[in-house]
Automatic annotation (TrEMBL):
GO terms for molecular function: adenosylhomocysteine nucleosidase activity; methylthioadenosine nucleosidase activity. GO terms for cellular component: cytosol. It is an enzyme of class 3 (hydrolase). SUPFAM superfamilies: Purine and uridine phosphorylases. GO terms for biological process: L-methionine salvage from methylthioadenosine; L-methionine salvage from S-adenosylmethionine; nucleoside catabolic process. Pfam families: PNP_UDP_1. This is adenosylhomocysteine nucleosidase. It comes from Fusibacillus kribbianus. Pathway: Amino-acid biosynthesis; L-methionine biosynthesis via salvage pathway; S-methyl-5-thio-alpha-D-ribose 1-phosphate from S-methyl-5'-thioadenosine (hydrolase route): step 1/2. Keywords: Amino-acid biosynthesis, Glycosidase, Hydrolase, Methionine biosynthesis. The keyword Zinc does not apply. Its EC number is 3.2.2.9.
Length: 232
């Protein structure tokens, strides 16, 4: 079974509408929709925004549903000039940019006493996503890169430059690294898929509402095709 997490209802409602044989279970104030998508067993859930919601959601998918993989779908702000609005970033790894224990000698982003700085996504999931995106979203580009997460909406050019220079991130959002950490602790393969909705700079608050729907349409098309072709 595949777990698919979106932070907002807009990111998952089209997937829910395409599902069959659906049963809904509410846990931690989240609706877990279990059923089939193109004949494959899936659980689709809106986690809510932010790292805590995302981590709680992932743990429930592990404990209750025993998912074999977790895919986080949604939108993000671009951190690279060559990554345009509408393009897709597939996580090579994820990192919490607002984790700061430098006073204790840890590098920025390092969770104290964890054995890794970032959480690596599953190579097979990345490969499948690349192939599917070329097929269903031929008009956009797909990038592999580090996804940065924090409980902040980045809309400041100076902050954006710090994220790029410190972490070499490709995009920034609010959930992926928490999902990556929870998946890592449970030994579950994961992937964060992010369509770009804004440039994570001074124009972000203007770009986001205009391009949100367009970006989400790309991730929905990708999710539907990935479910058909994943070999777990």
């Amino acid at each position: 079974m595949i777990g698919i997490i979106g932070a907002m209802e807009e990111e998952v409602n089209q997937l829910k509408e395409a599902m069959e044989q659906v049963s809904v279970d509410t846990r931690a104030s989240m609706e877990f929709c279990r059923g089939t998508l193109d004949g494959r067993q899936v659980v689709v859930v809106r986690s809510g925004i932010g790292k805590v919601n995302a981590a709680v959601c992932t743990q429930i998918l592990a404990d209750v549903y025993g998912v074999k993989a977790v895919i986080n779908t949604g939108i993000a702000g671009s951190l690279k000039a060559q990554i345009d609005i509408g393009d897709i970033v597939l996580s090579t790894d994820t990192l919490q940019h607002d984790m700061d224990a430098e006073a204790f000698g840890y590098p920025a982003g390092q969770i104290p006493r964890m054995d890794t700085l970032s959480f690596r996504a599953d190579e097979e999931l990345i490969r499948c996503a690349e192939e599917c995106c070329r097929r269903v979203n031929p008009d956009i580009r797909t990038f592999r890169g580090r996804v940065l997460s924090g409980d902040q909406f980045i809309a400041d050019r100076e902050k954006k430059e710090w994220l790029v220079n410190t972490f070499d991130g490709f995009c920034t959002e609010m959930e992926g690294a928490a999902i990556g950490q929870a998946a890592y602790l449970n030994g579950i393969p994961f992937l964060v898929v992010r369509a770009i909705s804004d440039k994570a700079d001074d124009s972000a608050s203007m770009d986001y509402p205009e391009f949100e729907a367009k970006a989400i349409s790309h991730t929905v098309a990708l999710m539907k095709d990935m479910v058909k072709h994943l070999n777990l």
